[in-house]
């Protein structure tokens, strides 16, 4: 660590993610338009929206895989990706960004398992090389996580020997091995064959009892069963948010109704 | 009608007799060692140049681009002469002989090896860059999301995967390298071709001697083709993936690939 990052403590320590007036442009396209969002500890938030609405981009800003043009994102009370110098955003150094990312698990649409490593090696890689956990302990933790996602017998398989659903479950275990305080899911079931979606959602639902989660997904069943809150995003703006019950049964906004009618048919 | 000197020819292609001549013995050792060292250094230079070329800092990019531009755009023979004779007259570095016990590394060998390595680095840079860029960007994102820094992600995640893409062309580069060491003849570096030239100066049998010289190179590249096929197959096996092209395909692919 070269320079100590200024620590921004958000008022309520139980807030895990706080986004304030986040704006992002891809060239002229305004992908995120003044996004404000707070996610509390153990809350499960599902973000819905048409493709191209900016929902995945927003999720990727939370662990700074995408840059933002203005606004602030705090994770665990610390601003991520930037230092605020008199209102100007200056990109933080790699060490600080990496340290914060280690606390944020991410699950990708296309799994992104490391193909040259077995399931078990995928899981122990970051604990050993980032957290410097002793190998024996990392292995024990990984075995436990593999058992938890129902893949204890697949520990020595390479990703290309696993089905999509199995790969995604290993990817979830890999993220959990870092003992993150927040899990981000970027369309975790969109690349799966229909018969494999259930096994991944089961793992996620199980996890929802004990984790803070932000999930970009159109899986209504999951949202109804596990989400505390549904956030509907369109054209880079939060259009409406509420409990799954409210949102799915009584959407207030016209755009929400239109969207729901499209995904329900 | 040319009288082919069979006795001289057999004498120089049959290793037990040929290797009794210290010129040939040392030349063969020099060719093999210089090839290995120059190739290894070339991979290191190439890795830095590849990373430089992909760097977000313009200074590194320009440096890497300039290096690749110059050393791929000028003849190796000229580079070698420039390094050895050119640098020699400036006395920036005189390439003095280095002695380690019984082993003497002559200045010409040092300069030749370095020129080969620098030149090779420019070619390896493109091979390594292509290898790194063939890896799905999602791999780097996944590594970053687990808290890995760029350098750790490169070392543990990207390069081990890129290696599989890099190793087949690297093997072909090494095949070329063993043949290209013969250019060191002009700086009298004492490798295999120089040795045969020296003998030719004594006995003037260029037809017999240069056929013999060519067969030594053929032996080296053939042995390497076999080793290369094994390396590539074991690479495929270990990762639970399908085997690469068979040894014979590899062998002919290896020896028919042209030099630079």
Structural class, from helix and strand content of chain A?
A: alpha/beta
Largest sheet of chain A: 6 strands, mixed
The overall pLDDT average of chain B reads 90
Biggest contact? A-B, 32 and 22 residues
Biggest sheet features of chain B: 2 strands, antiparallel
Mean pLDDT of chain A: 93
Strand order of the largest sheet of chain A: 8-9-10-3-11-12
How many individual helices of chain B? 11
What is the string of helix and strand elements of chain A?
Answer: EEEHEEEEHEHHHEHEHEEHH
Any descriptors?
heterodimer; A: 265 residues; alpha/beta; six-stranded mixed β-sheet; B: 260 residues; mainly alpha; 2 strands; 2% strand
Write up what this structure looks like.
The complex is a heterodimer of chains A (265) and B (260). Chain A is α/β, with parallel strands linked by helices and 265 residues long. Chain A is 35% helix and 26% strand. In chain A, the strands form three sheets. Chain A has a six-stranded mixed sheet with strand order 8-9-10-3-11-12, sandwiched between helices. Chain A starts with 14 loop residues before the first strand and ends with a helix. Chain B contains eleven helices and two strands. The radius of gyration of chain B is 21 Å and the shape is globular. Chain B has helices at residues 6-13, 15-18, 22-53, 58-73, 76-90, 107-133, 137-145, 150-180, 192-203, 206-238, 247-256, and strands at 98-100, 103-105. In chain B, helix 3 packs antiparallel against helix 4. With 260 residues, chain B is mainly α. Chain B has a two-stranded antiparallel ribbon with strand order 1-2. In chain B, strand 1 (98-100) and strand 2 form a beta hairpin. The interface between A and B is medium-sized, with 32 and 22 residues.
